[in-house]
Design a protein that fits this description.
This protein is of the alpha/beta class. It is about 45% helix and about 20% strand. The chain is built from 9 helices and 7 strands, in the order αααβαβαβαβαβααββ. It has a 7-stranded mixed β-sheet, sandwiched between helices. α3 packs parallel to α4 and α8 packs across α9 (about 195-215). The radius of gyration is 18 Å and the shape is globular. The two termini are about 30 Å apart.
Length: about 240
């Protein structure tokens, strides 16, 4: 029986980039600007962005919802892959970060394919349901505050068509999800950050642990947690 996971090394990552990475100029420009922000690691990686673009094409997705935009790398990755007539509804609470996203969406010529709503994610997802969009989305990407993931997951079920796909990001949470990893170890990994940020990360790790167990027991979806980037959980609505 083969091992479940390939142990990645810096050499293998370099090889992966050499044969896989096709980051277009529009995304490269956005990534380079995002790197100037102290919290740049909140953005998806080029590998994840490319993966999302391929997923949009695989699903022939025309209706997409993104919860958590940051500077817009994932939304731009998906927008560039949209077929004619496709549209993305993007939800975030930060105007400064999403102003960066807006600028790069426009520069890439996809701004007309994107609707941005600045409000809490769950409130915005419910707004879509109340506006008559329930049961009609092809793809939903969740990459926002981790304690709210269960709520986003349930709202995604209400928004998706049968056979539609939800993707939750960061579900391996920088290898901090195993129960053996203590709160002290998590804080030590983020020692360069202030205590309140360390505590926030601890809370997020606990939230993802609970979320992963909840998804595993959810009969409404066919699921797969894939070790791409920081872990992506896929759920196909049954």
């Amino acid at each position: 029986m083969s091992a479940n996971l390939l142990m990645m090394t810096e050499e293998l990552y370099a090889y992966l980039d050499s044969v896989n990475n096709r980051e277009p100029p529009a995304l490269r420009a956005l990534r380079e600007e995002t790197l100037k922000d102290p919290r740049f690691n909140m953005a998806v990686s080029p590998m994840e962005g490319q993966f999302l673009g391929v997923l949009v094409r695989m699903l022939a997705a025309k209706k997409i919802c993104e919860v958590g935009v940051y500077t817009g790398y994932s939304s731009l990755s998906m927008a560039l892959a949209l077929p004619p007539g496709g549209h993305i509804w993007c939800f975030d609470v930060s105007e400064p970060w999403t102003n960066v996203a807006r600028k790069h969406w426009k520069a890439a010529g996809v701004d007309q394919k994107i609707t941005l709503r600045l409000a809490p994610g769950a409130e915005s997802m419910q707004w879509l349901i109340d506006s008559g969009h329930g049961g009609s989305f092809d793809l939903i990407f969740i990459d926002a505050d981790k304690p709210s993931y269960p709520k986003y997951w349930d709202l995604a079920h209400a928004l998706l068509r049968t056979g539609g796909t939800v993707v939750a990001d960061n579900t391996m949470f920088q290898a901090m999800v195993p129960a053996r990893v203590s709160d002290a170890e998590i804080k030590a990994k983020f020692a360069r950050y202030p205590p309140e940020t360390q505590q926030e990360v601890v809370g997020s790790a606990h939230a993802i642990r609970a979320f992963n167990k909840r998804v595993h027991a959810d009969p409404r979806f066919a699921i797969s947690l894939v070790p791409v980037g920081d872990g992506m959980t896929f759920g196909v609505k049954l």
